[in-house]
Amino acid sequence: MKIVIARDKMELGTRAAEDGAERIRNALAARGKANVIVATGASQFEMLAALVQAPQIAWNRVTFFHLDEYVGMSIEHPASFRRYLWERFVSRLPLPPRVFHFLDAETDPQAECRRLSRLIAEHPIDVAFVGIGENGHLAFNDPPADFQTEAPYIVVNLDEACRRQQLGEGWFPTLADVPTQAISMSIRQIMKASAIVCTVPDARKAVAVRAAVEGPVTPDVPASILQRHAATTLYLDPASAQMLGGRQPP
Q1: In this structure, what are the phi and psi dihedrals at residue 155, rounded to the nearest 5 degrees?
Q2: What is the pLDDT of residue 32?
Q3: Which class is 2-241 in CATH?
Q4: pTM of the prediction?
């Protein structure tokens, strides 16, 4: 795992986007197409804003998958990740993507897992853009995460810490409104990506970052599995990096 500490959130997003964009260009040059995973959430705002402006990318030759979606969530809901990705990414690309495989967990999540699992098996991933949750989750794989399942997409239960993060970020009016289940890309599927660009700003992520980087690899800190991926780059800002090296928070 490589760690990059940017000066602020804006630089963090720019550098992460530049890294991922170069990997997309390399895949396009080598194979004429690219397969990419994109994440959602407040941690991805700056990165996605920079990625849509990346030059010299034939987006019409890029196939996209995304990480997770709430079970039962309408695309009209402000917290919908399908809505997020359309508004913040897909609609802003200078060319429409070859395909964007949106996750629809609204009606039959198990069938949707099977559908997306078949599709992603046919598309080896060149780069996965991900983040880390306050509880150390990777996608919606909350602790203790399933490190063993080979299924690319699974239905998971969301723990209270994860649900409180969604509330704290302003996506829902009350904790009771936050769904208790989601479809998530599995840990093993994320780890199959040729490269992982992990973007993690903000002080509220500092404890999780330290555990993921400096602690043991354990399902109790799902993002710690990234230590075992040789082509992972973790992009931090000073706030999220403040506890690395054994430092205590101010």
Answers
A1: -90, 130
A2: 97
A3: alpha beta
A4: 0.95
